[in-house]
Amino acid sequence: xxxxxxxxxxxxxxxxxxxxxxxxxxxxxxxxxxxxxxxxxxxxxxxxxxxxxxxxxxxxxxxxxxxxxxxxxxxxxxxxxxxxxxxxxxxxxxxxxxxxxxxxxxxxxxxxxxxxxxxxxxxxxxxxxxxxxxxxxxxxxxxxxxxxxxxxxxxxxxxxxxxxxxxxxxxxxxxxxxxxxxxxxxxxxxxxxxxxxxxxxxx
Length: 203
Fold this sequence. Notes:
By secondary structure, this protein is of the alpha/beta class.
């Protein structure tokens, strides 16, 4: 029954894909964002926006911004994105790595940093507000591993407020984020934050 329901939703909501570009920057660290965001080197970033065709032109649809891990987008990430699309939810696949001509940051984590990707996520959010189909109050973020860290710390108020005091993700779903940062100030937004870590993923 569940499979039939998803197939019916997919039939009712055919997909429209667009590559969207916007201007972000290359802050190396959280400190760079908080203390000197305007002084950071500019960077063009792109992502793939997928919208279901609307049956009702007045209907607003929720959006999920997806953030990949240290090996960039993988098949298992896209399975989740596909699941959201079949539910009639718009998705935006953020391509922070390809935008900077990087394939992987495994073992280094310095070519594309968490700070860069958090900024990319908010700049994407700002850009996508121009689409009338999107429900501006229902824009969420999800990510895996490195992207899970981006998802978690995009809710940290010192970062969020330095980037955009007006915007706030409606929810944060973080899969196995790296536990390498413990801020002295544990001030996060009031949006729901859910972390998922597998029993064997205890690295």
